[in-house]
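Q: What does the assembly look like in three dimensions?
Context provided by user:
Components: two
Sequences:
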Amino acid sequence: MALLQKSKPNFRKLLKIAPLILGVLALFFIYFPIFWLILLSFSAEPLTGVPGGWHFDWYIDMVYGADRREGEAFVGDFQLKEPLIKSISIATLTSVLCIISAVLVGRVLPNMKHQGLLLFGFLVPLMVPGIVVGMAMFLFFRIGLGIKMGTWSLALAHFVWAFPFCLLVILVVVSRLDQRVLEAARDLGASKIQTFFQIELPIIKPGIFAAGFFGFLLSFNELPFSIFMRKGDMTLPIYLWIQSGAHNSSVPLIFALSTIITLISMLITYLIVRLGFKNG
Amino acid sequence: MNQPLLTVRNVSHQFGNIVALDKVSISAKKGEFLTLLGESGSGKTTLLRIIAGLETPTYVETITLSNEDITNHPPDKRNCTTVFQSYALFPHMSVFKNIEYGLKIRGFNESDRRTRVENVLELVRLEGFGNRKPSELSGGQKQRVALARAIVTEPAILLFDEPLGALDERLRLDMQVELKELHERLKVTFIYVTHSQEEALTMSDRIILMRQGKIEQEGLPHELFDRPKSSFTAKFMGTENIFEGKILSQQGTKCIVGINKNEINATWHGNQTLKPGTSVFIAIRAERVNLNAKENEGNSFQGKVSKTIYKGKYSDHYIQSKFGELKSRIWDKSTFEKNDICFSLNEKDVIVMKN
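A: Here is the predicted structure of the complete assembly.
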């Protein structure tokens, strides 16, 4: 502080504004490409990277098909419905698996010996690149255990990916829970089960919602694990990835689709934050 | 009924390598206000939690409540409720629902629950607070909700885990009186844990003073206050002046103790005979040092006032005497001018203790 007091007023002002500037820059770098993407999805020549010539054609094509075929979302070989449904169902499955496991683990973890080490163990998938884990899982399950790839293997892979996040969220709410409150319930005559469902669960509910949404979103957008743990299955991210590598005119539709997915994801995240942190 | 309501026989408990309780046995009579007194680590809270069933002891012979063996019963099957220091109110429920919870578990119908909850809200002076949430209450109000919640199920014993610890002094003193009145009104057995000897003296019918997992002394408040059996008890109960000496003679309650070549007439409340030469301690409360003594009165000695500390309600005078530094507490307004004084001690106020 002495340094600050002795330095010139201009330098001090700069020091105060610097974090603000950095924050704005960071937000800019995060959101500008997304904003650009949205602009391009309404543009005539999106592949040039230059927005302009505004129209909704790509969105219309996405839903009705370039041949204006009604009802089925398809342009040429751009078939959306199956990957979309697959992604949603796997995401839902992952979300449920994550909630159940995260609650079971999260409740007991703070009371265990070596909890730091155990927590670290659970968080390891976050630290290893997705491609590496995906490949390792493939080798282990398909080659090592002989398990066939399919929807369930994808759900498992997504679970491994999403679980650490969900666990962290649950741990936050569980650690805020005063154990004495649960003791009070037992003391007043509630059995262990009554205490769990009537007292514990309602208190950690925001965390469960947040964990569920996280699990869903993370699974929905997941790519690297899915590449390895699928047979011929198409999740939406895989479909987009394959399509974006293709050199045909359906590519611009990806912009439209990505915009929609991005906006929906942002909306869901916003809802999580509102619901999950409503109580401050 | 002279049968104790609660008995705990030979309970021992360890946390890892730390001994929290060492073969402790207690009993509580129906309707009594029993206080477990002690500093942190004395085992008082552990004992309370074991009675509640919230802690399973490493070893216990039996615990009986209302003539029923509850040794292996979980907390939800014991007819006692706890008032926690941190209140432990259910944050997602209103005050009404918090209090109602125990009744709901027990299967009371809605109108019964409503009547009882409203009665108990009146008892703790929180009428109209039913719809508030715990987060909207002050500390004192939360404490009363916790109390109401514990009382409404009409348990055989109410357990209190330092309930006033988190309140400020004024509120604490008021609540002490309220709790005492509540106890008289409900006529339920209270087992109360505290580290404050003042609280214990104010409210209890009987006090169990604990130290490092064992019972140091048990008895009526005035017994611990006026007749401590050990210097630990004496110090804990606020006796300032404790000196070591040797028995010169003892007959019944009358004793003569020698300290540094001085003879003091003292009182011995124990049953054993003390042989001359036995090492003992004597305890004298600061309030009982008489600073206006005439020379040659019994138990009168010379001393020099070295320091005076003004404390508003009273003043503490430190006197250097032949047996050490003595603290004298004077409650009247007279300031003390003299330096060299003659002080005396009533022999009934000089208590002999074995250790």
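Follow-up: The mean pLDDT of chain B is 91.
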